[in-house]
Amino acid sequence: MVGVCAAFASRQLARSARNRLLQISRRGFLASAFPNAAPESTTSSVETVETKSGPKVSFRPPPVKRGSLASGSIFADGEDPPEITTSRRTPRRRPETVEAAEEGEAEPRLPALNERDAANLERTLNPFPNRRARWQRKMIIRTVRRRGRLTRREQIMQSERDLTSKSHWFKTSVKKLGPLARQIAGKNIDEAILQMRFSKKKAARDVKAFLEHAKHEAIVARGMGFGQLQAQAESATGETAEGEEQVKTTAITPRNNAKPVTLRLKDGRYLSITDPTSIYVAQAWVNRGPYGTEPSHRARGNIHILRPPYTSLSVVLKEEKTRIREWQEREERLIRYRRKKVWTQLPDRKVTIRNQYYAW
């Protein structure tokens, strides 16, 4: 009975499968799975993705902006053209060097002094003509009265150079900056810079930078400290033709033909000077500046206001020839005083009382 039922079930399954296969049409095998798809051509594999229709893109990234060199870049071939924009009132004027280069000139031509407007120059050079006329009249009268002779102060100012320089405000106190000012006073400028270089003080770094600036200003603005350079130039020009090749190949050591001068300072120390044009710190003093304000946060939300002091340093730079002159003047003054107060055992005196008896 079981075998009969199994055979009957298998026959029913075979009939059902055969009926379904007969209902499948030929179009079903050749048709596409998507009803709206276009028929593919023989070159469909070569077509790009852009030709096919796809979903619409709602956002596109902005175009990439290419960079350019800055106006002062060292990699630019030449000077940049003027930037013409509507945001400014007027475009930037092109530099004169570009205009001169376009015209074929090597350097921009400036108007000669005689071609300039004298009225514009007079307003700047002589803003108060009446005061200037009175001052000139006063100086002429003084020169005539003195018969052209210069005072001692004028002679010193014409023959010696000096420079007074003041630093910016240092964030330190007078008590802390005062010892450094006393340390560099009277020393050579190079020695003072060396002292500040190896000093343990916090303000010594600012003082060192200020001394270097003052030294450069004295060299450029006053022409101080050129003795070694002049001696070096003279030694280079005085070489023979045989020694010229050696001068070109070897470095020239600075030499000074002046004899060394040994002088005694006011504090009793002796100093030997080989270059009269070398720079030294004649005076150094401290200036009290303004007080700043800084908050100091304390407990329980309290804030204290601190008043940090600011101080500056002023120096007077002179050449060694000034110190030599001052030493010579002190020596001459001492010699005059000694000659005036010479002690003698029996000085020559006039006979005032004439009698026949001795007075002793």
TrEMBL record:
GO process terms (BP): translation
InterPro entries: Ribosomal_uL22 (IPR001063), Ribosomal_uL22_bac/org-type (IPR047867), Ribosomal_uL22_sf (IPR036394)
Region (Disordered) residue spans: 36-113
Keyword Ribosomal protein attached: yes
Entry GO MF terms: structural constituent of ribosome
Coiled coil: none
The organism's place on the tree of life at top rank: Eukaryota
Keyword list, A-Z: Ribonucleoprotein, Ribosomal protein
Any matching Pfam family: Ribosomal_L22
One GO CC term on file: large ribosomal subunit
SUPFAM superfamilies cross-referenced by the UniProt entry: Ribosomal protein L22
Family of this protein: Belongs to the universal ribosomal protein uL22 family.
Protein name according to UniProt: 39S ribosomal protein L22, mitochondrial
Taxonomic placement: Eukaryota, Fungi, Dikarya, Ascomycota, Pezizomycotina
